[in-house]
Prior knowledge:
Layout: H1 12-19, H2 25-38, H3 43-57, E1 63-64, H4 89-98, H5 100-103, E2 113-118, E3 121-126, H6 127-144, H7 152-162, H8 178-188, E4 191-196, H9 202-215, E5 223-227, H10 230-247, E6 255-257, H11 258-261, E7 284-287, H12 295-303, E8 310-315, H13 328-334, H14 343-354, H15 366-371, E9 376-379, H16 388-397, H17 401-409, E10 415-418, H18 424-442, H19 446-452, E11 456-460, H20 469-484, E12 498-501, E13 515-520, E14 526-530, E15 537-539, E16 547-549, E17 553-554, H21 555-558, E18 563-569, H22 580-587, E19 590-597, H23 600-608
Parallel strand pairs: 4-8, 4-9, 5-6, 5-7, 7-8, 10-19, 11-17, 11-18, 18-19
Antiparallel strand pairs: 1-3, 2-3, 12-13, 12-16, 13-14, 14-15
Bound molecules: adenosine-5'-triphosphate (ATP).
The site of adenosine-5'-triphosphate has 13 residues, from helix 9.
Protein name: RecBCD enzyme subunit RecD
EC number: 5.6.2.3
Domain AAA+ ATPase: 188-378
Amino acid sequence: MxxxxxxxxxxxxxxxxxxxxxxxxxDVHVALRLSALAGETSPDVYLATALAVRAVRAGSxxxxxxxxREVTVDEESEVDLDDLPWPDDSTVIEALRRSPLVVGxxxxxxRPLRLVDTAEGELLYLDRxxxxxxxxxxxxxxxxxxxxxxxxxxxxxxxxxxxxxxxDPAGSSAPPDRQRIAAAVxxxxxxxxxxxxxxxxxxxTVARVLALLSMQTDRPRRIALAAPTGKAAARLQESVRDQAxxxxxxxxxxxxxxxxxxxxxxxxxxRFRYNADNHVPYDVIVVDETSMVSLTMMCxxxxxxxxxxxxxxxxxxxxxxxxxxxxxxxxLVARPMSGKENPLLARLVGSDxxxxxxxxxxxxxxxxRDRLRGGVVRLSRGRRFGGxxxxxxxxxxxxxxxxxxxxxxxxxxxxxxxxxxxxxxxRKDVVDTAAGVTEAASGSDASAALQLxxxxxxxxxxxxxxxxxxxxxxxxxxxxxxxxxxRLDPDRWYPGQPLLVTANDHETRIYNGxxxxxxxxxxxxxxxxxxxxxxxFLLHPTxxxxxxxxxxxxxxxxxxxxxxxxxVVLPGAESxxxxxxxxxxxxTRARRHVRIIGTEEAVRAGVQRRVLRASGxxxxxx
Length: 622
Ligand SMILES: Nc1ncnc2c1ncn2[C@@H]1O[C@H](COP(=O)(O)OP(=O)(O)OP(=O)(O)O)[C@@H](O)[C@H]1O
């Protein structure tokens, strides 16, 4: 028997790294094929190439050659990474500098790798990702070289009207008001980036940005609202529509996925209808949940923009990033800012920029002020949560593990911490939620069933194993079966069955990650219901190409959704999936209560472990 994960052609160092589980067979094949085409024979270059392919697979845009050894392997692997025959960093870099894979060779113009020197060390790119990153950098810099033409007096009036004191509607909100700064930045820059944790008012601000921009002209602005997933688009649309009447926005603004906005075409691969030669026809584009946008998608979006289209990128850079390579939103916030601050900003919101601390909002730091040059504003004042969840999220984000433990062990009603044997409260939430959803679904009330299915969600870091989704979903089904006296059979459709879509279907506009529920219609037919705008979208379940029954889901999948109560089953402290970003994402899925199930050791390990996502966007190239 051969192990499919081991590349049969791999020899020497590649074979050793492959068998140790650091490299996949595909990484080895790509490295060998490229080397053969270019006539490369150095084992150091083989290894670096295979590690560069692996890095992209693991979500990085490039390989950080100064951190070669920072790789993770499966938990089951018993290999000690330090025992592997790691070459010396500088030997690898020297070999790459001479390599035909990097400099081109007699075999032809093929140059599949790029070696880049930066102040913090060398990066190795697969050419395709290098070019995408270059495009992003170039388009952003071009767009930052000028500012939109605006009517200053009208903007000032707009800001005064839209950002009111909550207690005194005749007055403006107290400075510093970062939402007002964000709106002013968005109105005066071609590209702006509005970031913040959950409930900091990102969508509230976006609706006001749209109102502010619409006030600037008599001609209606062509506005596009977009998000990387269908679910996130639906949420954005709903929030903006809720505020449309109050703000004088068109009542029928529709949000769509980025794929749809760029004109995804069946059978055309990543080639969109709108691209560098055929720009998207909008004056203003808002992208929500930008943390989930991959490098490739950001590249496609930026190259499809008209130079004068105003782009507002919104999201939470502390969350888990896209499944594909890149952490573009976090990079845009952290990258060295070029350009000068738009002087108009100081005239419009000078009192916010210069204000001292206010009881509700701290004064702007020097770093925040600097980020304004790049059109980046971070909203920090939580507007939604009763303290506990937000405080916990902030402590995780700031890697303050003692504070995290203190909050978990406090009696804050929004947070609880349970041992893996202490499952009574979880069981009750699972059973009660299923009972509520089943009752509504059996009574053909699709809206209520969908709403009730957001009352509680069980999240895991892993798919498999004792901490994984499969195990916990089975456990949940047993609990529900015992409580209702009826065994659940996920191989047949039944009312109240919770669904998770696992692949995009552009035709039905049902997307990977969308969740729904099976409902019995008044005519007794069973249909799948998905939340979409005000009315649920119903379709026959056989029209769903890829769908699972979901009593537990991975934290990755839960991105872009929120639930009243979230229960998070943590894996063991040694799990490489357990990271700060993962914990932060899980905690911030909860609206009212977050229940963490696991050990103190696991919490502390998770808070300290970071997702390594190498990219060049944060660096200055030499
Ligand atoms: N300046 C404000 N004055 C009053 N209420 C506000 C203000 N800003 C936000 N809110 C309210 O706070 C809540 C959270 O705001 P919003 O939904 O815009 O946050 P968000 O950052 O988009 O959150 P999420 O990331 O979870 O979607 C909403 O109910 C909103 O109406």
